[in-house]
């Protein structure tokens, strides 16, 4: 068992590279294990992940602001504080802020240590 206190503060919180996100994204790693990992992620307005999928799925809990989540072949869906999203294993999707609002969420990615996320392609600009 691993207990992560709400007051945890890691010096590794950082702005993330553009290879996996559009816009400015800050990530605070919470934990990493052999079969899952957790991050607090803050998306500035217009910032989003690229299309990606997870070996065993992903769980998102929105903690701040308003955002969007989208699965392949579906229209984007609006998110707000308190919403939870379960993305099934292998489902291609993206998530992030709206064009006008930031969003923060806690993301739990499931899968083997070296296959948490499989980045597929750059996300086109949304109208």
From TrEMBL:
Signal sequence segment: none
A family per Pfam: Cupin_2
Domain of life according to the entry: Eukaryota
Sequence ranges assigned to domain Cupin type-2 in this UniProt record: 41-99
Protein's name in the database: Cupin type-2 domain-containing protein
Species per Swiss-Prot/TrEMBL record: Friedmanniomyces endolithicus
Lineage: Eukaryota, Fungi, Dikarya, Ascomycota, Pezizomycotina
